[in-house]
Amino acid sequence: MAMTKDNKKGKCPFRNLKPCSEECAFYRKGIRYSENGKDPIPFEECSFNIIADNLEAMHNRTYMMQQEVGETKNVMAFKILSDLGIIDKEEAIKKATALINIPDDKKLIK
Questions:
Q1: Is residue 55 very low, low, confident or very high in pLDDT (cuts 50, 70, 90)?
Q2: Taking residues 41-47, what's their average pLDDT?
Q3: Could you tell me if residue 72 is inside a domain?
Q4: What is the structure's pLDDT at 7?
Q5: Residue 36: which domain range?
Q6: Inside any domain, residue 39
Q7: How many C-beta atoms surround the C-beta of residue 4 within 10 A?
Q8: Distance of alpha carbon 69 from alpha carbon 87, whole angstroms
């Protein structure tokens, strides 16, 4: 028997939180694939629980993309300010490096 990501069968919100079963039209059985390359996880649970998990994952991906776009925008702004001579090039690199959390061994200026 396949299990959910928490290694226990999911509860159905329409059956007084009893375990979801094949009798229900919303019952789903399948495999979850994670983004970080871990092994696929078999699951059996209510499709509404699966939908909620997928929405949460999509929200988290969107949030991370927005954060990356914001960091990229700020780094480009420092580059433009440096090119225009408004701020020193080394200062712009230090600020951009601090902004995007580059590990010490990869920093351009030490």
A1: very high
A2: 84
A3: yes
A4: 45
A5: 27-106
A6: yes
A7: 19
A8: 22
Taking the C-alpha atoms of residue 88 and residue 80, their distance in angstroms, rounded to an integer, is 11
Only one residue has tokens 């010490």, namely 104
State how many domains the chain has.
1
DSSP string, 63-75: HHHHHHHHHHHHH
Q: What values do phi and psi take at 44, rounded to 5?
A: -140, 115
Tokens found for residue 79: 């580059």
Q: Is 41 domain-assigned?
A: yes
Show the tokens assigned to 93: 């690199």
Residue position matching structure tokens 């480009």: 76
Q: What is the 3-state secondary structure (H, E, C) of 41-59?
A: EEEEEEHHHHHHHHHHHHH
- Which has more pLDDT, 109 or 105? 105
pTM of the full predicted structure?
0.57
Residue at 74 is within a domain: yes
Do 14 and 47 touch, CB atoms closer than 8 A? no
Give the pLDDT of residue 35: 72
- pLDDT at residue 104, rounded to an integer: 61
